[in-house]
């Protein structure tokens, strides 16, 4: 085999020289690709993988935070409903208590007004009776004076006055 035959191709035959040459060129290209392209591409892919992992972790954290916030809001809403119910219950109880106090005070006022009216009526009755007695006494004295003046003598009148004075002293 000659040099020319090692590196020359005849119809349908591949020679070892060409194969070696292709292998050397392929190896050089692999080294160049690894050095200039594979490293940066691998680094870029690793950064992208880290970013995706970071984004997924961040999304999971945000989802957990959102769930916690949703639970807190739900608890706050439940608390506010309970507080509203408690406030309404307290307001109803206070209104009932105030209503009871007002009714009790009104009943007390009515009872005191009734008692005062009874006392005023009794006093008015007593005053009316005293006045009627006084008037009856005055009328009786007047009638008695007229009757006595006609029927009694001066000595009888004097005895009657003396008896009356003695009756006053008792």
Automatic annotation (TrEMBL):
Record GO terms (molecular function): proton-transporting ATP synthase activity, rotational mechanism; proton-transporting ATPase activity, rotational mechanism
User: Any transmembrane segments, and where?
Assistant: 20-39
Q: How does it sit in the membrane?
A: Single-pass membrane protein
Which Pfam families does its entry note? Answer: ATP-synt_B
- Where does the protein principally reside? membrane
Alphabetical keyword list: ATP synthesis, Cell membrane, CF(0), Hydrogen ion transport, Ion transport, Membrane, Transmembrane, Transmembrane helix, Transport
> Under the cellular component aspect of Gene Ontology, which terms does the record hold?
endomembrane system; plasma membrane; proton-transporting ATP synthase complex
Task: Give its localization.
Answer: Cell membrane; Endomembrane system
The record's listing under InterPro entries reads:
ATP_synth_B-like_membr_sf, ATP_synth_b/b'su_bac/chlpt, ATP_synth_F0_bsu_bac, ATP_synthase_B_chain
Function, please? Answer: Component of the F(0) channel, it forms part of the peripheral stalk, linking F(1) to F(0).
Q: How does it assemble?
A: F-type ATPases have 2 components, F(1) - the catalytic core - and F(0) - the membrane proton channel. F(1) has five subunits: alpha(3), beta(3), gamma(1), delta(1), epsilon(1). F(0) has three main subunits: a(1), b(2) and c(10-14). The alpha and beta chains form an alternating ring which encloses part of the gamma chain. F(1) is attached to F(0) by a central stalk formed by the gamma and epsilon chains, while a peripheral stalk is formed by the delta and b chains.
Family named by the database record: Belongs to the ATPase B chain family.
Name of this protein: ATP synthase subunit b
């Amino acid at each position: 085999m000659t040099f020319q035959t090692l590196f020359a191709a005849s119809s349908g035959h591949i020679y070892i020289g060409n194969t070696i040459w292709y292998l050397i060129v392929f190896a050089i290209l692999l080294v160049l690709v690894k050095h200039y392209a594979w490293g940066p591409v691998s680094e870029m892919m690793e950064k992208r993988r880290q970013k995706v992992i970071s984004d997924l972790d961040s999304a999971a954290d945000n989802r957990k935070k959102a769930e916690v916030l949703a639970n807190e809001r739900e608890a706050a809403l439940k608390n506010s409903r309970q507080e509203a119910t408690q406030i309404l219950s307290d307001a109803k109880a206070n209104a009932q208590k105030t209503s009871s106090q007002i009714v009790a005070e009104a009943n007390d006022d009515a009872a005191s007004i009734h008692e005062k009216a009874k006392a005023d009526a009794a006093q008015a009755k007593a005053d009316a009776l005293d006045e009627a007695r006084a008037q009856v006494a005055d009328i009786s004295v007047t009638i008695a004076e007229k009757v006595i003046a006609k029927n009694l003598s001066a000595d009888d009148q004097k005895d009657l006055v003396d008896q009356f004075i003695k009756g006053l002293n008792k």
